[in-house]
Amino acid sequence: MAAADRPVVVDIATRRRDGRRQDRGDGPAPLLRQVYGEILRDERRDQDRTLDDVARAVGMSKQYLSEMERGRKEPSSEMLRSVCDALGLPLENLLARSVRRLSAPRRTGQHTVTGPPRVELMAA
After folding, report:
1. What tens digit of pLDDT does each residue of 12-60 get?
2. What is the domain partition of the chain in residue ranges?
3. What ranges does the record give for the region Disordered, renumbered to this chain (predicted)?
4. Considering the domain 26-102 in this protein, what is its CATH number?
5. Cα–Cα distance between 65 and 75 in angstroms, integer?
6. How far apart are the first and last CA of the chain?
7. Which runs of consecutive H residues, i.e. helices, occur in the chain?
8. Burial 16-31 (b: 16+ CB within 10 A, else e)
9. What's the predicted TM-score (pTM) here?
């Protein structure tokens, strides 16, 4: 069978809503701010709302909200609550979804790790 004739298998668990591959399964657990950002972005997109729309409802810049969603900014608890309120997402729901994502099985090297991430301190 030619390569072009072979069926394509897609693991839907590793695809995001926008079709891009999630890297959650490989390597170390993501930072909490990255998980919060993914959830907020998913929720905003599920509601078909723009960055500008949500940022205006919160009273923040579109750039700052974008950086929060990409996990580049460490938002305060007040900022998280404001964004959740603008999305109609209870803060408790954000926290529960974050726990589920962080405790999902992930691969580190040759091993699959389940349960909460383990913290390791390393000297520089």
Report:
1. 444 455 555 454 455 677 899 999 999 999 999 999 999 999 999 999 9
2. 26-102
3. 1-30, 102-124
4. 1.10.260.40
5. 9
6. 52
7. 32-46, 51-58, 62-69, 77-87, 91-103
8. eeeeeeeebeeeebbe
9. 0.65
